[in-house]
Amino acid sequence: MHRGLFMLLVLLMVAPCVLAQDPVKVDAKHYTVEFENARVRVLRVKYGPKEKSVMHWHPAAIAIFQTDGNTKFTFPNGKTQERKEKAGTVISTPAGRHLPENLGDEPFEVILVELKGGTKKPGSKPPAKTKTATPSTKQ
Predict the structure, then answer these.
(1) What are the chain's domains?
(2) 3-state class (DSSP) for residue 43
(3) Is 6 exposed, middle or buried (CB count within 10 Å of its CB: 0-12, 13-18, 19+)?
(4) What is the DSSP code (8-state) at residue 124?
(5) Model confidence over 75-109: pLDDT tens digits?
(6) Considering the entire predicted model, what is its pTM?
(7) CB of 61 within 8 A of CB of 112?
């Protein structure tokens, strides 16, 4: 009885880690970190023809398609979504879990700019405006 309870507690502690899997850690073949700071993480995502990833999670992000793409996303609830994007297209994506797959016969590449934090809390003040430096024309 105690052993079963212990196993249940271990599973409950591990579950959040499994649910929020980092694609760079669980699928390093397809995901590479190009840049990271306190505000963003920039990933280069490359899939060969017909390649498939594993279920993983991303925060809200901006996707910049480097090539044309014909992809399918499978979500944790089993629903799927197919997308066709042209190179140069830029889209905003919500946070969430998915399993992507390249349905195309050509390699597929996208730059994904993951947004860290930055969610405005209700009632919070907007950030203070900052001045932009301009080049001086005086000699």
Answers:
(1) 20-115 (2.60.120.10)
(2) strand
(3) exposed
(4) P
(5) 999 999 999 999 999 999 999 999 999 999 999 99
(6) 0.71
(7) yes
